[in-house]
Specification:
globular; two-stranded antiparallel sheet; 36% helix; alpha/beta; 7 helices
């Protein structure tokens, strides 16, 4: 669809994308709760745990069982597999209620050139990651519940490749910047990438949810804030200081727009 202001659909088109690791009980609770939501056209689950095999018979549910833990980058993999225009990321320790999807859908219709999220963070006056909840327009969107346009996925994958190259990082060593393994940071990368692509910061929206057990939560682990500060620093340098990848990313965005 043309991303110029408000767009129209005859029917709702939301792909719900979930990453899973060690919470199979939560996954089945989520499926049973959300499989009949009218606004959800498909539920794609990427299982990063080689010791657990997930399966479900419902026609909306599509599951990828993997023998390797690719971490939170599998959000982009889910996005590439998705068939709808509005993608909703949801963690496996919560169940977004129907009203949450309705609000995400309406915001997407009103302005699809933006990331919307239930929880946001903003940087402090020294440009450091802040752990406090923020509201309205935010610097960082937490991807535990967030929507993005499908068209952004290709740009995320390409800009991520350039990001690793600019930092001389191999995919197997990216945990140095808190982007794999025991840490995270893909939400910070998403926020900067969407700002670069659309010149819009993410928008926090009040989204009702039910919380589920959250053992193994990444934000509870040692070094969480330090890793996220590292990611903020690297994203600032990459998206706003490093001229070489900036030109390549702009060229990529122009190529995508020319294909529409």
């Amino acid at each position: 669809p043309p991303l110029n202001g408000r767009i129209e659909y005859d029917v709702a088109m939301i792909s719900l994308l979930i990453n899973s690791w060690k919470r199979p009980d939560n996954i089945y609770k989520i499926i049973e709760s959300q499989k009949d939501y009218d606004l959800i056209r498909e539920i794609i689950i990427f299982n990063n745990n080689k010791d657990i095999t997930l399966s479900h018979h419902h026609s909306k549910v599509k599951i990828v069982n993997c023998n390797t833990d690719f971490g939170l980058r599998t959000r982009w993999a889910n996005g590439l597999l998705a068939s709808e225009d509005c993608l909703v990321f949801q963690d496996d320790d919560l169940i977004a209620k129907p009203e949450a999807f309705s609000r995400l859908w309406q915001n997407f219709l009103n302005n699809p050139k933006r990331v919307y999220c239930a929880w946001g963070r903003s940087l402090d006056h020294q440009g450091r990651y802040n752990l406090k909840n923020c509201y309205g327009e935010v610097d960082i969107c937490l991807t535990c519940l967030a929507s993005i346009p499908k068209e952004l996925i290709g740009f995320l994958v390409e800009s991520e490749r350039l990001f690793f190259k600019a930092n001389s990082l191999e995919y197997s060593a990216i945990n140095k910047w808190g982007y794999h393994g025991n840490m995270n940071g893909e939400d910070i990368f998403l926020a900067y990438a969407s700002l670069f692509a659309y010149n819009n910061k993410p928008m926090q929206v009040d989204l009702p949810v039910k919380h589920l057990p959250s053992s193994e939560a990444l934000h509870k682990r040692s070094g969480h804030r330090e890793a996220r500060n590292n990611m903020v620093k690297k994203c600032e340098e990459f998206f706003f200081s490093n001229k070489t990848p900036q030109k390549k990313m702009r060229d990529f965005l122009q190529m995508v727009r020319n294909l529409k």
